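Database export, one record per block. Field names are fixed; values are copied verbatim from the stored entry.
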Amino acid sequence: MLKKGAMFGLDARIALAIFGALSVISGAALYSAIENAKVVQRVTSLSEAAKALESYLLDVGTLPPLHSTEGTVIDITKLISSSEIGWKGPYLPYEAGDRWGHTDIALETPEYNTTVGSGMALRMIQTTAGAFTLCTSGENCTVWVSLLEQDRALAKKIDEYVDGTVDKDSGNIRLSATTNYDNIWFNTGIRVDQF
């Protein structure tokens, strides 16, 4: 026959085991929800940048100017502040600049990576015959929003979320690898040869 105290100890151990199992399950669900929120946040930022560029284009009538030395990079800060006729911005709620001081190339966005100093930029990309190369103007030259140096696993989740599959070389999301991170490229659908 079991002693009364021994039975209480068994009940407590069973309860602790159940609570432990439940905490593992809820922890995994919470982690998954946090990862999904990161994906949605970045996709929203990319979409907002594309809409901001379109609004600028409708108001001013042209794309923002190119960076003075980076011929394929659009001066994204013109979406924040500009003296252009017709400008009705700011079109984005971010600040200009990144850790490297590229104040006319990148914006510090919520997904700004403080480790490597990345941000959001606009580049003109040519996608002729499956190629994904920088361009300054011409046929099949499209403006792409980039989030530079993002976590590689997260970048793949974003690709799958937007395009339905992970394929770094096709679709509206393209990925290009750096040493430890991926650059995420989002097609705005705005062709340079239209303007």
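Remark 1: Residues 99-104, 110-118 have pLDDT under 50 and may be disordered.
Remark 2: The longest strand covers residues 141-150.
End of record.
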